[in-house]
Amino acid sequence: MTATPYYADDSVTLWHGDCLEHPEWWIDADVLVTDPPYGIAWRGTTFRTAGAHGGIVNDQDTTARDAALSMVPASTPAIIFGSPLAQLPANVRQVLVYQKPCDTGIFGATAGFRRDWEAIYLCGPWPSVPATRSGVLKTLAPSVVSITAQRYPKDTGAGHPHAKPLDVMRTLIATTSGVIADPFAGAGATLVAARNLGRRAIGVEIDERYCEVIAKRLSQGVLDFGASA
């Protein structure tokens, strides 16, 4: 990392770099909330995008995800998005379901069933509390387009292919306390949702294009479909 963060305000600090080479991101963290490379070597299509996406850095396997998790003390709870077809992260306590918008999961479908959900792993120590929430998290965002395009300030010029909706991130973050760390910040949904909830957050993103997206989202604001969720 450089001597100064890529972006910083009273709530959020964003670093540009490889989280595996700079472990400082987790020192002040109380909880890990992240959407890491899934380890499925995903490549995008031209459907509803400006062009086929070339893939995500370190997505060839789960090495980057697992290495980042190994840096965090075992006493740190973690919320980690992932593919149900990839190897699970360590110390999984429970698996939640993120049900994506109704226009997702068309490609790669089998027997007519859309691939329209992703796993959310709760790892590490979690308190025992009454079961008042469903294990299936849904977004009020009307479509994948609203997540990957409309949520960004219009002049960012880029949208992350695996961006998560703010209402889902807000629901997850609200179950935690303390400072949030996201070593794979992507398009910044974790950081934006944390700040909107009045929480401190530290993020790292390896791709400078998305650092710029995050910085503009944080400095200019962002449309939040499903704000009542």
Summarize the structure.
The protein is built from 5 helices and 9 strands; from the N terminus they run βββαββββααβαβα. It has 229 residues and is of the alpha/beta class.
How does this structure look, described?
By secondary structure, the protein is of the alpha/beta class. The protein has one domain: 3-Layer(aba) Sandwich (Rossmann fold). The protein is built from five helices and nine strands. The protein has a nine-stranded mixed sheet with strand order 1-2-9-8-3-4-6-5-7, with helices on one face. Helix 3 packs across helix 4. The radius of gyration is 16 Å and the shape is globular. The chain starts with 6 loop residues before the first strand and ends in a 9-residue tail after the last helix.
